[in-house]
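Hi support team,

I submitted a single chain yesterday and got back a structure, but I'm not sure I'm reading the token output correctly. Could someone confirm the output below corresponds to the sequence I sent? I've pasted both exactly as they appear in my results page.

Thanks,
R.
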Amino acid sequence: MDLVEVTPLTLADRRIYNQLLENAWDAIEKPVSHVIHKSELRGSHNSNDRVGDSIERLMSAIVRVQVMKDGEPAVERVQLLGGNVEAERRDGLFEYEIPARLRKIIKNSTVFARLQREVMFALSSKYALTLYEMVQKRGNLKWRSNERFSLEELRGILGVPKGKLTSWSNLKLRAIEPAVTEVNALSDYIVEIAPIKTGRRVTHVELRWWRKDSEKSNAAARELQFSKVGRKARMDEQGPDDPRPVMYQTKGPALLPQTYETARLRFPGYDIYYIENEWRSWASGKEPAKDPDQAYLAFFKTFAARNPL
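Hi R., thanks for writing in. Yes, this is the structure output for that exact sequence:
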């Protein structure tokens, strides 16, 4: 099940709301007030105005979710945020409540997921953040790794404004493809959204997801440590099966997965992808190596000898 926005929210709104949920998570089912520092909600912005605007939009936001009522399917509409008190001091506290009906939904469903904060702030669009939420809440389901949605359902879950991205081609180009690229690059999951046609028209999509192996998870974790500057270009160049962090994506012959493992075992403590980047920079303009894997390992040996940890 997913929340469908009746009142569209911005990327900043969703980030702030996820922070509020994360902060309240350990007691989220209880009828208590939660407190968080406003500085945590501001992020990199200096002004509290943006936080206040988001809070007011969240208070007025209505979402709907499919639930079971007396054994029958039903639609439940709820508000996202209850009463709250914001200290006027710039470094003050924000006290808030989770509405009672929403607490019941959280208790009895898998609608909500606890997100990794680093990924949440790295994603640059509302559609990418929403897709990440969808996958996070499904990631631990052992009995399924795909789900089908109508285009109308998908637009509602992604929060596409009414009248926008009405054709499949626009939805795919403006929302789906950029979101999938970001989630694949920065999260612990590989995601695909495949179109399904009824006749000649795309009417549904199939969402598929699976966890990355440790190599690709480490690559995503490394990318999160770097600046966003140039990230889009790096992601655009990254192949779907390339294990290297997008920070270090460069043109040239791909190395074998076992080569990275060998480098990790021979030279513990070194950043194997950084050394690869140094090797490729050094080798640019030279005659291509007959065996790139051995050439990389030989360069690594020399580099480690000259730059001991």
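A quick pointer for reading it: Confidence is low (pLDDT under 50) at residues 243-250. Let us know if anything else looks off.

Best,
Support desk
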